[in-house]
Amino acid sequence: MRSFLFLPADSDKKLAKGLGSGADALILDLEDSVAADRKAGARETALAYLRQHAPLAQRPRLVVRVNALDTGLTDADLDAVVAGRPDIILLPKAEGGASVIHLDAKLTAREAIHGLPEGGIKIIALATETASALFLCGTYRDASPRLSAITWGAEDLSAEFGSETNRDAAGRFTSPYMMARNLSLAAAASARVPAIDTVYADFRNTTGLREEALEARRDGFTSKMAIHPAQVAIINEVFTPAPEAIATAQAVIAAFAANPSAGVVAIGGVMYDRPHLTRAERLLARVKSQTSS
Fold it and tell me: CA-to-CA distance for 279 and 52, rounded, in angstroms?
């Protein structure tokens, strides 16, 4: 998956636009984009949407962002939406592996209630929205087989820090938030799951979005979240491996396959070692997952 598009779960109009957006995944949001007095209705709308679209053969992945575990709202969210068989639950304000284990237990109980296969609903952890969460980024590894990706966010974190802003005059994240970004990337690598880059809020600034997406891809993120359908095409383009990159990866894998005991191989006058092989294998795995989803 390359793109994850947020859709407020209380808006039928915005939900209706999701399938035509081109996003690889749609996030039905029960958290920040839904006011407290509209959450009950949003749960009903999300369930209806899941029941209508989850059975379709060709569709984006369907993700539900529930409310954080410390809000007292998570159980009601899960009681409503698990019956609709979402593919993934996005856990906001996650605080390390323990929070994933906690959500795993809640999902296991509800899958049993609804006769669903245990472990079928996956989890994405939003790992950097509280200050304490930053100190727990190294605890996600082996927390749960449901954990399918780790992402990060800066808005809630900036409120907790008391920052005047989380971006500088050029639109780049300031150092505290780059630290959070990098910790989420390390957390995903440690947990051996994909890293998803956060949203770019200035949705009319396509140049800024592209630059940020390119930097994220360069550093190891495999996808990016979007807050507006207009952002999806750029994100998909950036995170779709180029034919040249695919060809190079295939050549590296073939060269090592022909020389299984080699630590280094030469292709077109360039030396490639075992870490290049690992990157090549991961890139082709991403290509395979994109073409099969």
Answer: 38
- Where are any strands of DSSP class E within the chain? 3-8, 25-29, 61-65, 88-91, 122-126, 147-151, 195-197, 223-226, 264-267, 270-273
How far apart CA 99 and CA 232 sit, in angstroms, is: 30
Question: Which one-letter amino acid corresponds to residue 4?
Answer: F
In the DSSP assignment, the letter for residue 167 is B
The domains located in the chain, with CATH, are 3-238 (3.20.20.60), 243-292 (no CATH)
Q: Which of 265, 282, 66 is nearest to 194 (CA)?
A: 282
Q: What is the pTM of this model?
A: 0.91
* Mean pLDDT per 10-residue section of the chain, whose length is 293 residues: 96 92 97 95 97 94 98 98 98 98 98 97 98 98 98 95 95 96 98 97 95 97 97 97 88 90 89 89 81 61
